[in-house]
Amino acid sequence: MDVHARLARVRSAEGEPEVRSLPTAAAGGEPALPSSAERGRVMVVDDEPSIGSTIRRCLRSHEVVVFTDAREALERLAGEQFDVILCDLNMPGMSGDQFYRELARCDPRQAAQVTFLTGGSCDEDLPSLAQVPRLEKPFEPRQLREEIAARVAAHRAGSRSIAG
Q1: Which of 46, 39, 53 minimizes the C-alpha distance to 96?
Q2: Alpha-carbon distance 9 to 27, whole Å?
């Protein structure tokens, strides 16, 4: 599962030869690490610490911040922006749909980055939130990495078009 590095001989801007380490896929098919431009900021909101830990390991090439309490996550979002917010729907205290509705009220642009983590059984209960993407548990690590990479790229592309 480790990502191995290979060496590449390149020329510096001054034309001098130099050696750089480049990420490559390991024999087990592990993807190469993304460049800093592709590295996303991901927030995970799930009351089960093991889910947050698993997601952090799967997304080790991204900056991942995990919260087990939705209210604490909302407080953090008051001062920071994330490319992707993964939020469990079924949590004690403040549920995922309540978290989403509060975030949408306070910061609609950030609410657009939410993806619900679901067990599949509660999707029909929230037809008013049908527009929010969902990732059904259990998910494969590869599926999660691909989804996050796509969401980070889409968010960055949207941010550039708004700013430019």
Answers
A1: 46
A2: 22
User: pLDDT tens digits, the chain, 164 residues: what are they?
Assistant: 332 333 333 334 444 444 433 333 443 444 555 555 578 999 999 999 999 999 999 999 999 999 999 999 999 999 899 999 999 999 999 999 999 999 999 999 999 999 999 876 555 556 568 889 988 888 899 999 999 999 999 998 886 554 44
Q: Are 93 and 71 in contact (CB under 8 A)?
A: yes
Is the distance from CB of 38 to CB of 77 less than 8 angstroms?
no
CB 31 within 8 A of CB 145: yes
- DSSP state letters, 67-116: ES-HHHHHHHHTT---SEEEEES--SSS-HHHHHHHHHHH-HHHHTTEEE
Q: Determine if residue 131 is left, alpha or beta; phi over 0 gives left, psi from -120 to 50 gives alpha, anything else beta.
A: alpha
How far is residue 36's CA from residue 33's CA, in Å, rounded to a whole number? 9
